[in-house]
Structure formats: structure tokens, C-alpha cells
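Problem: given the chain below (323 residues), write out its structure.
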Amino acid sequence: MHKKLAVVILNWNGKSWLEKFLPGVVRFSPQSDIYVIDNLSTDDSIDFLINYFPEVKIIKNDKNYGFAGGYNQGLKHIDNEIYCLLNSDVEVTENWTKPVLELLEKRPEIAAVQPKILSYDQKNYFEFAGAAGGLIDNLGYPYCRGRIFDDTEEDRGQYNDETEIFWASGCCLFIRSKDFWEQNGFDERFFAHQEEIDLCWRLINSGKKIFYTGKSEVFHVGGGTLNKQSAKKTFLNMRNNLVMLLKNLPFPQLIAVLFSRLCLDGFAAIYFGYKYGISHFWAVGKAHFAFYTFIPGTWKRRQNHQKHQFYQSKWLIFKHFLK
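Solution.
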């Protein structure tokens, strides 16, 4: 008999992360079914799970589908009421699921919830991928409470609240399975990065709410599969963000925002090239050309209703870098 919650970890050659963090997930999630979806790993992750964690259910994908496709493929085989999509490089804490489940229980309009995400290496600081809940500005730049671009805040209890947010991090994403599948899951074209923002935006457009609770906290290493300084990560973030804007922006704002972003991305290419190397400069250009090829398919995926007041802050990039 299935339990209400399924904690689901996507794995690709991540045996070292499973060794380090899976024992804590098993220990602190007694009321949950625990799954590992494997994206055709070439290390001995599967043998490790079979030998040391027989209670963990394994789902084997037939190839590496990336984050978006990997979860879509694997979750088809899981019919629990609530999914928790958990990165393999996350350390959970005692009773970490309880506040989230209580919030979902009392608020049926909430589709997805994110806990407080702190840095594993600096435990008194928020972590880049999610921090205290995701927001977005009027030009479509994602940011978080507790993190703007690369700058993270120290956790002083300022985000110990429960509040509505715009997007919940895929690093630790609790979502009702019904709502996940009503949106056809993640957009697999994204492969990885910002697919959770796109999903949350679609949920909001359909009338659902996304929430954060500071009553639950986890610690994230970050960059476990794709390093922050990877040019591929720059490419995926830039391409996927543009695709997401075309897909979800209300039409009155769409042309102006896209034009502004295409211009600003030129400055971003110079900045990334200077900070991380020439490969990141070219990654931005490649992301734009890839976006152009995605336009026809993305336009067909636009929903009938777009949320008109979609942002929580204005001109974030200018406030942050110029002021």
C-alpha cells in the first residue's frame, strides 16, 4: 500500500551523493515511500542501492533524459498523492516533511511547496537554488528571497514565515501529483534548469498557488551534476528562460519584454565572458539561436489564460548591478 508522500530522487552517476545523503533521507522520512529514478547511470549506483538500501524503490530510465524528462518518465510509475522531488545532493533534517504536508492538507488551492533551502557548506547562509522561495521580476529574471543573482543572504530568521511565492525550487519540490500531471509535467525540451519555474508559472496561470514554508529546512550542496561555472549551464539557463517567457508571458508584455531581454543578453554575454571565460560568451549566443528554433513549438504550448500581474519586483538587474 502506497503512503501519501513519495520522496523521489533523480540520479545520474551520483553514487557518491547517494552514499552521503540517502541515509538521512531514509532516517528522517519514515512516513514516505522513497524512490530513486536512475537516468541510465554508468557508475555502480544501482548495485549500491540494491545492496545497501533494499527498502528504496528503483525506477530505471532507458537513457539520460535530463532533469525534466528524467522525472517525467520516472514519475509515470509512481502513484502517490504527493511527490517530493529531491536533489541527490541535499541533506534533509528531522521532521522536514511534516510542515509541508500540513500546509498542503489545510490549503487545497496550493499545488506546490518549497522548504527553506540553506547552503550545505555555509549552513547559516541561503543556497543559490531556491533559498527562501522563488520570485521573478518584470523582465523575467528569476531571483529568490534570500538570493539575488549570485548574492545570498545570511539566515537570521528573516524568512521563517509561510508565504505565497512565484516558483518553488526543483532542488526540493513538493507537488501534488494531480496538479503535476494536469500540466503534463515538466517541459522536456528544457532538459535541465528553469523547468520548475515554467511548471509553477503554468500552475499559477491555471489558478493554483505556490508556497514556501520556513518551518522546514534542508541543506543543498549545489552543482552536484552540472557545475555553476559550466558553459552548458549558462546555455541552458539563457535558452530556457527565453522559452519560458515566450510560453507564459501575457501577450501585452511579451514583445517589450522579449526585445529588452534580447538586448540585455548582449551585455550578459560580455559579463559572463569576462567573469567565467570565452566559452560562456559563446554559450549566450548559442542559447539565442536555439531559442529561435524553439519559437514555433513554444507558441503552440501557450495556455489560453496568462496571468497579467506576473512579477514581484521591477528592473531588478538595474537595481542590483548599477546601484
